[in-house]
Design brief:
Largest sheet: 7 strands, parallel
Shape: globular
CATH superfamily: NAD(P)-binding Rossmann-like Domain
Distance between the termini: 27 Å
Strand order of the largest sheet: 3-2-1-4-5-6-7
Strand content: 5-15%
Number of domains: 1
Bound molecules: nicotinamide-adenine-dinucleotide
Helix content: 25-40%
Number of helices: 8
CATH topology: Rossmann fold
Oligomer: single chain
CATH class: Alpha Beta
Number of strands: 7
Order of helices and strands: EHEHEHEHEHEHHHE
CATH architecture: 3-Layer(aba) Sandwich
Amino acid sequence: MTETTSTTGTGLLAGKRILVAGVTHPSSIGYAVAEFAQQQGATVIISNFGRALRITERIAKRLPETPPVIELDVTDPDHLETLPDKLAEHVDGLDGVVHSIAFGNPETLLGGKFMDGPWEDVAQAVQVSAYSLKALAAACRPAMTDGGSIVGLTFDASQAWPAYDWMGVAKAALESTSRYVARDLGAEGIRVNLVAAGPLRTIAAKAIPGFTDLEEMWATRAPLGWDNDDAVPTARAVGALLSDLFPATTGEIVHVDGGFHAMGA
Ligand code: NAD
């Protein structure tokens, strides 16, 4: 595991107010981002939805400081509409938003079922995993009065992968959505970027039948090597994009994959 330094109050994200949407478990990329952001001085709020919300409330206590936990189903118009009020109970604005959310039915859409994937499930995957970036950005926009940074997580959608199937299509939609949100919110000083992570053993990833095929490819091809149990390098990149270090970067995708994407074989 990569070590991080605790610099609360004086860190890279000191004074920043950040919503991390999509934290279920300590293995969640969102959890690593929340932890890193707190270590770097940010005030953090986390969110999740449905039955997993109870787990989020429990694991929130393991973070360096227990953050407020908000209920947010990104497909629920009421949740999106009331988000600014829920945020206002804890912070007087937002500087950063992390979209760490995806869902595709593993029974019908993933693991080699591409040619049979039913539209209803594809539509759900695209709504939860891609359209939701726009929905979340629109919901948070009123709180981002001083501009800010929105960061999402993708799995490089520029090529087809084994097993990933319709989630790959949803990620391609997410990547395009991030560019359009970057276009439309740029004038307000809001940057929108994605981090393309290599395979990490999270709950979502373990639900993908054939995920081990991807892990094996990374083990042999990533020039820097790749630890699929360590979300800290990914969290650090998200943190850097949330910080003031990238003031002129938007619509970008930063790969945190051990260099895998740059290798032909
Ligand atoms: P995870 O299961 O820990 O997190 C996914 C989160 O999405 C969960 O908290 C889940 O409750 C939430 N979610 C699902 N539907 C939602 C909805 N309707 N409303 C609100 N939240 C909802 O898995 P993770 O791997 O940490 O995933 C986080 C992000 O990272 C996802 O976008 C994922 O595609 C991306 N990613 C993961 C990997 C990997 O290998 N794990 C690699 C690259 C990118």
